[in-house]
Inverse folding.
């Protein structure tokens, strides 16, 4: 590998080598260090996408550190008679005739450009000589791309770089001192420089007509639908007094709008004025809660989560607010809007209990009537008790043909509540009741009072006369209903008993 560039002794005497090289070469010869932050896989994916699809490609200079562990090298730099020299490992240097005088900090308007070439054997490249001071995530993205597709031409793109050169000396601590300098530079680069705020950056992209909507969405990695809602949110915040934005978000209206849309509107598929009005209404509700002192914790991520819940699930807004205030949510490590919302959902999520109904097959018409009856009844009960009840369709299956008995067995195993109609003492129903009891399901049993008469509305089938419950079932409690008024009778039985069963399940499951 051959690197060519310029070299200079810069401010306070640091020796800096600067040039241009391909991304794949710089990735091959460098490594992350212990002072680097942990690799963020999401950021790697974002950078990879930026490499491949961004219309506005800009690549800031990569910065490396290199400790040259050969005491002869610094002397060779300072020997005017030597222009070419190499390390013990075979790394060759070629320089113009200049020296790097110790502690001579050049001051002046006209630095002298000094060309410099470094040739590194392939076996030494594999040792990854350079430490990544700034740009580790960008090069890690290249590492990932090249490992997945060595022929990808992204690695051939030329980018700028700088290498902080430090040399071994007679001081036994020279290597430790070199590492201290690298670590300090990493800290200074990443903590002291003040970048533009998110709001400043977004304002530059969204304010005015410099970028089209499609260009702005490409740069921000959002949909045009989200962009339209961001503009509506910002317009509202610019024309209204919203204290929680002023106090908590330090009037960063663009940043708030972007975060709200990016998290809360990611699944919205169309833009409508009605939906925009719903968003604005939710912000007004949150603002009223904030002004009245009903929000006890002042934290950006928490306020954003409150606003998103108010928009997405207005029925759960009061419950969410109460949960936020009662629990010290702001003490959660790595607090984020998404983690707050997900934690609330995990704790409070309402799952539906599945209901299986076993009945004798009398006719297709009767099965349809039962499906309708149970759907109506369970829907009414769900609304009344505030908990989901889901009917497993009675004798209705979709998909490929399978053994009916296997399907029924799986449905019974998955159900939470088992309802069995013992009318006609059907063999299949008896088997299913036994299976439900063996799997510890909550069981509710029904039976028609007039079990020896023809069922109304269905003259094609006569029930067996004088058939009674088997002796080993006589200890199982069942509830009778009238054949003539079975529809309303069964609904009444369900209304009286299912809520009690649900409460039992909730207690047992700590719901």
């Amino acid at each position: 590998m051959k690197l060519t560039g310029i070299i200079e002794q810069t401010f306070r005497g640091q020796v800096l080598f600067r040039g241009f090289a391909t991304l794949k070469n710089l990735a091959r010869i460098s490594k992350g260090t212990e002072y680097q932050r942990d690799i963020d896989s999401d950021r790697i994916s974002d950078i990879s996408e930026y490499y491949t699809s961004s219309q506005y490609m800009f690549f800031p200079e990569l910065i490396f550190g290199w400790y040259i562990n050969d005491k002869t090298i610094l002397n060779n730099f300072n020997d005017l008679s030597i222009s070419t020299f190499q390390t013990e490992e075979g790394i060759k240097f070629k320089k113009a005739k200049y020296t790097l005088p110790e502690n001579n900090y050049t001051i002046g308007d006209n630095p002298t450009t000094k060309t410099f070439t470094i040739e590194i054997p392939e076996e030494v490249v594999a040792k990854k000589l350079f430490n990544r001071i700034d740009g580790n995530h960008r090069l890690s993205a290249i590492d990932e791309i090249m490992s997945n597709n060595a022929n990808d031409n992204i690695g051939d793109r030329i980018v700028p770089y700088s290498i902080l050169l430090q040399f071994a000396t007679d001081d036994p601590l020279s290597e430790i001192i070199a590492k201290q300098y690298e670590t300090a530079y990493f800290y200074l680069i990443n903590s002291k420089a003040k970048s533009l705020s998110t709001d400043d950056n977004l304002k530059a992209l969204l304010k005015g007509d410099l970028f089209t909507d499609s260009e702005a969405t490409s740069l921000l990695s959002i949909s045009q639908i989200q962009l339209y809602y961001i503009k509506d949110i910002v317009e509202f915040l610019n024309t209204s007094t919203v204290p929680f934005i002023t106090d908590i978000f330090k009037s960063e209206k663009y940043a708030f709008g972007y975060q709200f849309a990016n998290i809360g509107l990611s699944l919205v598929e169309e833009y409508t004025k009605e939906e925009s009005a719903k968003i604005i209404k939710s912000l007004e509700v949150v603002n009223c809660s904030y002004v009245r002192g009903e929000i006890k914790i002042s934290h950006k991520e928490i306020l954003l989560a409150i606003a998103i819940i108010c928009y997405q699930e207005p029925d759960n807004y009061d419950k969410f607010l109460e949960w936020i205030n009662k629990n010290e949510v702001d003490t959660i490590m790595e607090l984020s809007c998404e983690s707050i919302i997900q934690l609330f959902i995990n704790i409070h999520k309402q799952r539906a209990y599945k209901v299986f109904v076993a009945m004798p097959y009398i006719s297709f018409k009767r099965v349809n009537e039962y499906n309708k009856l149970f759907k109506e009844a369970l829907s009414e009960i769900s609304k009344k008790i505030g908990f989901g009840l889901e009917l497993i369709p009675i004798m209705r299956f979709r998909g490929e043909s399978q053994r009916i008995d296997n399907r029924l067995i799986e449905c019974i195993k998955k159900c939470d509540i088992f309802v069995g109609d013992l009318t006609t003492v059907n063999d299949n129903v008896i088997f299913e009741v036994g299976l439900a009891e063996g799997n510890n399901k909550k069981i509710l049993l029904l039976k028609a009072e007039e079990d020896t008469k023809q069922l109304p509305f269905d003259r094609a089938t006569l029930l067996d006369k004088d058939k009674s419950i088997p002796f080993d079932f006589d200890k199982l409690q069942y509830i009778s209903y009238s054949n003539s008024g079975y529809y309303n009778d069964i609904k009444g039985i369900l209304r009286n008993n299912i809520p009690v069963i649900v409460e039992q399940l909730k207690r047992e499951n700590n719901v």
About this structure: The mean pLDDT is 82. The radius of gyration is 36 Å. The longest helix spans residues 486-509.
